[in-house]
Design a protein that fits this description.
Layout (H helix, E strand, L loop, with lengths): L1 H6 L5 E7 L3 H10 L4 H4 L4 H6 L3 H6 L6 H20 L3 H8 L4 E7 L7 H13 L4 H6 L18
Parallel strand pairs: 1-2
Length: 155
């Protein structure tokens, strides 16, 4: 899919998005710390997929508590994904021709208790200076809701 996007559709920006509370990253942390022996089995497809993130695990500060290690590994996952993209010849060539930019983002997922609070938070984030380059890439007329309703967790 990425190759088609870059070579045929001539996508100019690829954004790797990471997020907090990522179950896959938690699984990798568990595997790397010996808390998920089933993932270490050679026959574990998920374990072999998580092996891709091992270089990121090797770079985190393991003197931190588990919560901080998880957050660091979530952010490393974005970096590892970007590094992985740079192994594909079509990515290298598009970057060499200055036809493609790679971007890495990480977001902290928050559960909102009201629709209004979520809309307000989204507006504040989108107004932040660090988000302006991303927002400039989005054509507002191309944005639409994909679902007829949004379910909010109410407490």
């Amino acid at each position: 899919a990425v190759e088609y996007a870059v070579t045929a559709l001539k996508v100019a920006h690829v954004i790797v998005m990471g997020h907090s509370n990522c179950g896959g990253v938690q699984g990798c942390l568990d595997m790397c710390t010996g808390n998920a022996p089933a993932l270490e089995e050679k026959s574990s497809f998920v374990g072999r997929w998580m092996d891709i993130l091992r270089p990121g695990y090797d770079r985190i500060d393991r003197t931190q508590d588990e919560k901080d290690q998880l957050r660091a590994l979530e952010q490393e996952a974005v970096i590892v994904s970007l590094e992985n993209l740079l192994t594909f010849p079509f990515i290298v060539e598009a970057r060499k021709q200055q036809e493609l930019s790679l971007h890495g983002l990480w977001t902290d997922i928050v559960e909102w208790t009201s629709h209004d609070a979520a809309l307000q938070a989204a507006a504040e984030v989108m107004a932040e200076p660090s988000f302006q380059p991303l927002m400039a890439m989005i054509d507002p007329s191309s944005v639409s809701m994909r679902h007829a309703s949004i379910l909010w967790r109410m407490e």
